[in-house]
Amino acid sequence: MYTLMTLILLVPLLLFLFRHLLSRRLRQRKPYPPGPKGLPIIGNILMMNQFNHRGLAKLSRTYGGLLHLRLGISHLFVVSSPQIARQVLQVQDHVFSNRPTTIAIRYLTYGQSDLAFCNYGPFWRRMRKLYVMMLFSRKRAESWASVDEEVHKAVRSVAANVGKPLNVCKVAFSLTRDITFRAAFGSSSSSSNEGRLDEFLEIIQEFSKLFGEFNVADYVPSWLSWIDPQGINKRVEKARKSLDCFIESIINDHLDKKKTEKNVNVDEVTDMVDQLLAFYKEEVKVKDSETKINLDNIKGIIMDVMFGGTETVALAIEWVLTELLRSPENMKRVQDELATVVGLERWSVEDTHLEKLSFLKCVLKDTLRLHPPFPLLLHETVEEAEVSGYFIPKGSRVMVTPTLLGVTRLRGPTRKYSTRVGRRSCPGMQLGMYAFELAVAHLLHCFTWRLPDGVKFGDVDTIEGPGLTVAKANSLVAVPIKRLLCPMVLESHNV
Ligand code: HEM
């Protein structure tokens, strides 16, 4: 009886105190940024077809540089002003350094075991160190030098098809696929490898779509996450299985190679996978810790390189050719510059030429601004934050839209802010940019590109496809024509 009386008195008192503290806290904290009003419980979920970078950019024009959306139980903030981007990516980047996850991301990255999607902290720091060591050590620098050889190979393959309509997307993807494949897995494209190379491309293209897919199940409480109205779970499972088989076959090939080549020591490792496996052999001996790297992490790094190194550069190459075919004056200016700097009597563009190709560089940067391969930078708050007088709760998704941050140089003033900053910035950008510049310089120096018969400049569209990365929805088809005064690359290499 006594206990019951105490409870009857205590419960309302506790409820009153809780309400009081909560409302005091709500009164004390800053407001959320503006955004479209959502429905109770589901918030703005019904607007989800607008949550790609173009749709979010449009919403930002109405609501401002920091926009707030409610997606079921989650908060989403969209940053489109350079000042706020500076806060998120630079000044307060320690607070915004987690990556948001979705069911697809968690499953496809072996539970955020890779570098790109793991959360910020000591483990991320160790992974990033390992990544840089594996990719940019002196040994790796030698294998990235193969970029030049693979670009030359691509030029020869285009030269063998002059006068015929080519799918530029396929040309660009086979080039970047070969660069990544060779640097990371040691083997270059050959007819015996062709099936594997195609499989590699299929996997990353499906991954890109799944990473960017908006899945309702991500925004409901976890006990409801089995709902799958869009059929994403099945696709995710299939994609992960294909990736796993692919990476395991690569790892097994490397282990078999070691068995057949007796007395191979760690210094003789030839490619990134060799190096990762040599590292892993030592790591298993280390006692368990927060930063210990396991086999899933090794697979995750391989996945990041496959994904980061191939699609970004290939998409950028296709977009540059698209923009130049839509603008014959700029195409002429780029090609005149190449003729002056490199000379029509030689076909190979060297490092030293790239530095002098200022208009080409300007076109490349401009294209990346108009069509950034990753149009939404995905971040998540590690703790509560305050930006520009607004409140951002812990665990919120924050998307920065580079398309809105930069204004184009060819068509207006230079951009004010670079997105290549902050702890989670791209570690492979320099390498990617080198491959991008070298490939485009060669393709535009060695060939004049025409549209197929019956297609006019105005017909070349810039419609974007879905996904985390932005590809052209309709692949560009163009006809390469011989341009140089020197013998064709084809003849000089007996291809
Ligand atoms: C021109 C080509 C490239 C572009 C445009 C690009 C773009 C980006 C962007 C926008 C980010 C996210 C930055 C952020 O969230 O603040 C990123 C991260 C990343 N990129 Fe790249 N990238 C390129 C090339 C590469 C290459 C060649 C590799 C690997 C070989 C690579 C591997 C990565 C990884 C692992 C991350 C995640 C880093 C982290 O979270 O700590 N990228 N990239």
**CA radius of gyration:** 26 Å
Number of separate structural domains: 1
Q: Assembly state here? A: single chain
**What characteristic shape results from the CA principal axes?**
globular
Q: Count helical runs.
A: 18
H/E element order: HHEEHHHHHEHHHHHHHHEEEEHHEEH
* Strand order of the biggest β-sheet: 1-2-7-4
CATH topology: Cytochrome p450
Strand content: 5-15%
Question: What is the topological layout?
Answer:
Layout: H1 2-28, H2 53-63, E1 66-71, E2 74-79, H3 82-91, H4 103-108, H5 122-136, H6 138-144, H7 146-159, E3 166-167, H8 168-185, H9 194-212, H10 232-260, H11 272-283, H12 295-326, H13 328-341, H14 351-356, H15 358-370, E4 377-380, E5 385-387, E6 390-392, E7 397-400, H16 402-405, H17 429-446, E8 447-450, E9 477-482, H18 489-492
Parallel strand pairs: 2-7
Antiparallel strand pairs: 1-2, 3-9, 4-7, 5-6, 8-9
Helix pairs in contact: 5-6, 7-8, 7-17, 8-12, 9-10, 9-12, 12-15, 12-17, 13-15
The structure holds protoporphyrin IX containing FE (HEM).
GO molecular function, one term: monooxygenase activity
Protein name: Cytochrome P450
InterPro entries: CYP450_84A, Cyt_P450, Cyt_P450_E_grp-I, Cyt_P450_sf
